[in-house]
Write a structure and sequence with these properties.
The protein is 36% helix and 15% strand. The chain starts with 7 loop residues before the first strand and ends with a helix. The chain has 295 residues and is α/β, with parallel strands linked by helices. The chain has a single domain, classed as TIM Barrel (Alpha-Beta Barrel), CATH 3.20.20.140.
Length: 295
Amino acid sequence: MIDGRVVVDAHVHVPRLRTVKPSWLEWAEKFGKVSPWREVYDSDGDPVPANLDALLAGEGVDLALLFSEYSPRATGIQPVEDLLPIIAFNPERFRLVGCVNPELHSCVEAEVTRQLDLGAIALKVHPVHGGFRPDDAALCGAYRVCAERGIPVIVHTGPSTFPGAQAHLGDPALLIPVMDEFPGVTFVLAHGGRGSWYNTAASMALERENVWLDLAGLPPKKLPDYYARFDLGRLAAKWIFGTDWPGVPGAANNVRALSQLGLPADRLAAVLAGNAAMVFPGLPADISAAFRSRP
């Protein structure tokens, strides 16, 4: 907890460092200067579960969603298997987010099923790093599995600074045909439409009950500017807290910055944990029960 508030960080990257490109390390060093993220890793560049657990506990993070990624064009390969030892170390604090790339996985339906069977509670799709459209027909099988199993889909929106990224594929409007075809799937727009698409992402979240915005990588103090066309209190009902760790100054810093936006106490609590409890299945009972029972 941070200042008495339950915190779910719904956007965390903890790859083995040998599997990522040098640009990923440069990004982490540049944007994670305040966070002692290197202390999580051993001399071989492998994450030490106990170290990550202690760091997040010290930051006040009650639960973290750990992201895998299959993006050889941009950041590298961060397979789900590398995250399993961390989750096994403390299954109360950590949850797995799967990922598919139709450029790599010949049968995305089978790959999604495999990752869900390993314990993934959500699926990440990264068009900008992967170099594919989110409405690519090859992904239909993945969305179908998520619909059948009640699994939310997180989609990167906005550009990326990594070499090899294709910014135009970050337009959240590309997802509209997918949302129309799979109305039962919950979609989380990662980074909230960052860059050119804040307004598009916010409008989609407000218009569609099954669309949410995660705040990963967005400085909280700038949110009123990013979403200046919208009533911030109303839009915050669709926000999910996430940091994009390690590329942030730390969860506690971001939580306290969020608390300065003047949101009602119940709305802030929902952003920090309650909305995640509504969207992501399988969160610990002490987190889920605190929010799912609310009207």
